[in-house]
């Protein structure tokens, strides 16, 4: 005869599962911003789940604080290991994009995951920080934790954490100045860019690009991509025009890419890339193009 769990035990397990589920969107938001990879973030959450169920939670005063600490420390460890892998990556490494249909309102869970700056531009700069600097910066600037909490989380003094956040903030500001663009303005400009790119209108594309616009591509060695950063509006214009001539059936779909208006490009009906844009003074100053098929596999938006 199979034994049944004691009712009190079952109730406790249900409460524990509910507590973890409630914290999950925030935990994923932390892990993804630390790692730039949906798969790695999910692995970290799975490890945290296992530790959660192996821990005596009766001694925990704040379950979510404990989970945040565990996820952040696991993310730091995983990022240290990933740094070595990314140094051997073919070409430029860009984060795995989080994509949602532009027409749909974010679900409550997605709204939590996407709260705060999640842009490809920010994650690109964060790759230049050390794992602990990245954690300190995110905890303070994105998740608004007190320095005392950050110090406990990282096992450092408050003074050391303040220094790390200050140093990281300066670097982020230098490499990625913040431009606030209304979403409707962002969408309208991208719609014009998509139409001009789809039809190969060279002059229209060029007019939407700042003179020193840059393009960063990530093919991961799986598909052709640029091994250097393109920083010339004329050359970027040529690239977009030549794609239409070479591929024929090129379509663009407006979507939310990492919480901001972006474009999905389809070639012959197949998703070819997810693209993020930085806008300044009504022009495109940066384009981040993720072409690595492994990073596009989870995107379910069709052309």
TrEMBL record:
The RNA polymerase sigma factor 70 region 4 type domain, residue ranges: 122-170
Top-rank taxon, per record: Bacteria
UniProt cross-references to SUPFAM superfamilies, sorted A to Z: NTF2-like (SSF54427), Sigma2 domain of RNA polymerase sigma factors (SSF88946), Sigma3 and sigma4 domains of RNA polymerase sigma factors (SSF88659)
Cited InterPro entries: ECF_Sigma-70_Domain, NTF2-like_dom_sf, RNA_pol_sigma-70_dom, RNA_pol_sigma-70_ECF, RNA_pol_sigma70_r2, RNA_pol_sigma70_r4_t2, RNA_pol_sigma_r2, RNA_pol_sigma_r3/r4-like
One BP term from GO: DNA-templated transcription initiation
GO MF annotations, alphabetized: DNA binding; sigma factor activity
Pfam families, per the entry: Sigma70_r2 (PF04542), Sigma70_r4_2 (PF08281)
Domain RNA polymerase sigma-70 region: 21-83
Signal peptide: none
Self-association and partners: Interacts transiently with the RNA polymerase catalytic core formed by RpoA, RpoB, RpoC and RpoZ (2 alpha, 1 beta, 1 beta' and 1 omega subunit) to form the RNA polymerase holoenzyme that can initiate transcription.
Protein name in UniProt: RNA polymerase sigma-70 factor
Lineage, uppermost ranks: Bacteria, Pseudomonadati, Pseudomonadota, Betaproteobacteria, Burkholderiales
